[in-house]
Amino acid sequence: MIKMIETEQNTTKPFLKWAGGKTKLLPEIYNSLPNDFSTYTTYIEPFVGGGSLFFSISQKFNNLKTLIINDINTDLIIGYNIIKNNPNELISNLKKLENSYKKLISIEDKSNLYYKIRADFNLRNSNDLIQTAYLIFLNKTCFNGLFRVNSKGEFNVPFSKSENPTICDEKNIINVSNILQKTTILNVDYYQTIKYIDDKTFFYFDPPYKPVSKTSSFNSYSKDGFNDDEQLRLKKFCDQLTNLNVKWLLSNSDVNFFDNLYNNYTIKRVHMKRFINSDPQKRGEVSELLIRNY
User: What is the DSSP annotation of 1-27?
Assistant: First the structure.
């Protein structure tokens, strides 16, 4: 299996912190890629989220001529498209927000600004550029730096009380934009990504994880959620790809549900740190699954 090698060029990182992000799991994922991955020409990620693996792979493998990312979260995909097409305008807006935030002295004033921008973001009546600037601002200043919405689709994460966060990472936004120039960005049901396959396509699936307990659920990336029926539907899609001789790798939580569901595939248990939990004492090491059809 392929080992990840850090290089000076491999510096572009996700522009958002995303619950379930795979930065810490990248070495294990690289060790699970096919030995001939350097021969693949198309990479498809149907649940891109923050894109930790996508950004890493797109910098490491020049053989990938076609990059496809997709997510059902419209706010997120709008953000990807704005960075792809209007990075300089976004940077200008983020600098204004950052300056407005940092010139405030008291945490109370910073909190008031945060909740005003959160309310404006949830109205969703601004243009895509402003909405993306709001999204990044909220992500950099909210509690735990995560994205969560309620059943109405409203962003509802509280303020983090951060005094001096980096809201505008200008260099990274430009780097992200450069990578996205060669990327097709979709906001569709993941089944539609099948139309992009060729004879050297690789899929990586990072769907909302199945909760390991009733109290650990966090898959509110979109207002519709991702229940067991959706996990079963995804398994059928993976079977369909297998029948087409397309290789795929999937990550999910370590619960017996997947041992039974994917019992005809290779399942590997790996460990990573959990960083998003309201109780810092519960941000320990957890077991996750890497499932593949090769």
Answer: -PPP---TTTT---SS--TT--GGGHH
List CB contacts of 40: < 8 A, sequence separation 6 or more: 34, 61, 63, 64, 200, 201, 202
**From CA 102, how far away is CA 119, in angstroms rounded?**
20
DSSP-H helix ranges across the chain: 26-32, 52-60, 74-85, 87-102, 107-123, 128-141, 170-180, 228-243, 256-261
Q: Hey, what are 150's tokens?
A: 């309620």
**Sequence letter at residue 221:** Y
Q: Among residues 3, 32, 25, which one has the least CA distance to residue 247?
A: 32
Structural domains of the chain in order of their starting residue, each with its CATH number: 23-72+188-292 (3.40.50.150), 80-169 (1.10.1020.10)
What separation in angstroms does the CA of 256 have from each of 101, 144, 263? 46, 29, 10
- The whole-angstrom separation of Cα 147 and Cα 260 is 31
User: In terms of pLDDT, which residue wins out, 153 or 100?
Assistant: 100
198 φ/ψ angles, rounded to the nearest 5 degrees: -130, -165
Q: Is 153 exposed, middle or buried (0-12, 13-18, 19+ CB in 10 A)?
A: middle
C-alpha span between 214 and 125 (Å, rounded): 35
> Could you tell me which of 223, 220, 192 has the C-alpha nearest to residue 208?
220
Structure tokens at 22: 């795979």
Q: What's this model's pTM, rounded to 2 decimal places?
A: 0.90
- CB-CB contact of 93 with 133 (8 Å): yes
Q: What is the mean pLDDT of residues 245-274?
A: 93
- Residues in CB range of 233: below 8 A, 6 or more apart: none
Per-residue confidence band for 7, with pLDDT thresholds at 50, 70 and 90:
very low
Closest by CA position to 4, among listed 71, 40, 55, 45 = 55
